[in-house]
Predict the 3D structure of the following.
Amino acid sequence: MLRFILRRTLFGLLTLWLITLAVFVLFYMATPGDPALMFAGEFATADQIAMVRARLGLDQPVHIQYLRYMWALLHFDFGMSFVNQEEVLTTILRRMPATISLALGSVGIWLLVAIPAGIFSARRSGQASDRLITMMALAGMSFPTFVVGTLLFYVFFFLLTNAGFPVFPSGGFVPITRDPGEWLRHMLLPWATLAVVGTGTYTRIARGSMLETLNQDYVRTARAKGLGERRVMYKHALPPAMTPVMTLVGLDLGGLLGGTIITERIWGLNGVGSLAVQAVETGDLPVIMGTVLIAALFVVLANLLVDVLQALRDPRVRLG
Amino acid sequence: MFVSVRDLKVHFPAEEGLIRAVDGLTFSVESGKTLAIVGESGSGKTAASLAMLGLHGPRAQVSGEISIGGEQIVGASQTTLRQLRGERMAMIFQDPLTAMHPYHRIGEQIIEAYRAHHRVSSKAASQRALDLLDRVGMADPRRTFESYPHQLSGGMRQRVMIAMALSCDPQLLIADEPTTALDVTVQAQILDLLKDLQREFGSAIILITHDLGVVAEMADDVAVMYAGRAVETGSVRDVFYRPSHPYTWGLLESVPRLDLHRERLTAIPGSPPALAALPRGCAFRPRCAFAAQVADGRCASDIPNAHDVGENHAIRCHLSEAARSEARALHAASTETKP
């Protein structure tokens, strides 16, 4: 088990390193335009630009630049924003609560809905209730987030508030530490926005995986032993059926923690996703780099976590 | 008769038509005896054995009569079936690796089978599991108890499957190709083990196999299945030494034998029919070399009924007694050519 975790961790580190390398190549060697010029501003003199270039270390040879870049990264130093002269890490950390709230909440909701729906559907495969669920799942998957978000906004904010029931705010974020009730009120619609697509996708996956598992020989053996249907379902079929779901959660959760762009925009959540968009719009290279690297870090971490969980469940992975 | 199956049918509705996996199967087994059900893949052997445990899903249409120790299986409630499964009849599957749960320890899996029918403490159940592992010949029962299926060899896994199946002393053991996935030397050990256990517990065994060597080794009686029906039933002696159905002749001639010199094995021409589109009349007719000898083309119009050709020896074939003796003489000549 320890060896497994070690191997996976090393693999994750290697992945991260490759990403940092790619980011370096993209931002230091292949950037269109001069970063020093962007940093110094439109009206800077040639001298000022040269000064900035020296301060950013851009006058150094590439390998020195790379070593400095890696050294800084190892200290979680992503540099200063070109726009507001703030530490990139500080900016990102300030944006994290909204992003984390959105990611964990929506993934939690869609798992809570999709797994039972998938199991239910698989057990009644071919029947009317299964077809209905499959159809709804497909519909959910097919709605683009911006359509779902806009629709939810219209119905639950606009119509409801106009009807005299201002249950939901139009957007914004309240940290859970300040007011848990308000936090929840502000998060419900953003969660729903992401959960519609997620629930659709995960219902289909859970259903497919459960169907496949129910056809496995070991499930037949469980029945042949004379076990009750509930035990067959939840002790024998469900745990292996959850493997593809977990793998996908690893990817999706990692991705969402790296920031969502559309949902954050619709609901005015100032998370990492909207930070990345702002940074791209203003050409704020250090912030773009920071958000990319943070997103990569989350994807790698979430996958590592899922791998370890999988190993805890499956002895073939753990001991194999 | 401990086990009695009458006119068993297992049909699956499918897009290409009704799949008749088992279509009028009749046989019986006494306690302490072994019946081998022989046939090619797709002849309905496994579908029949799953029906005996009531393991078919809601989409299968099972009809006919299955009586195990007086208990009716077809049409029984899920609750009744659950109480009977494992307790009265147990099953050993072809591939023990896929038949065991990959996440659970061997001990857990045996205990679970035992406790499904016995209200005992977990300590007593563990002891039972260890005893069973010892009984099926595991060298180190405690270690096996703690192992996961993937850590065992094929032969050990099949022993564990047997231990699991025997946990509640079932009176009927259905073994579906129990040695197909194993090495030849291990095969012999497993068959010996089954025989020993049968002698000890006096249970009836239904052995599903396509291996005639295994049949000769293990069985008292044989049912030869073709396209969902038993085309020939009888004692091993009768079926092997006085085979009376053209399909059985073909089956016996396709087996390599060291005591006979043959240039090559004789394969039965053609292939088994699609179960969704069985030919009218006798399902074996398209591959049968003797169909032309039957008057009025009855092979193509009527399904032959089972009729006795000896004591406890029956076939489903339209061929007349005279034509059959002639053909059998030919068959005997071809198999008795000594090197």
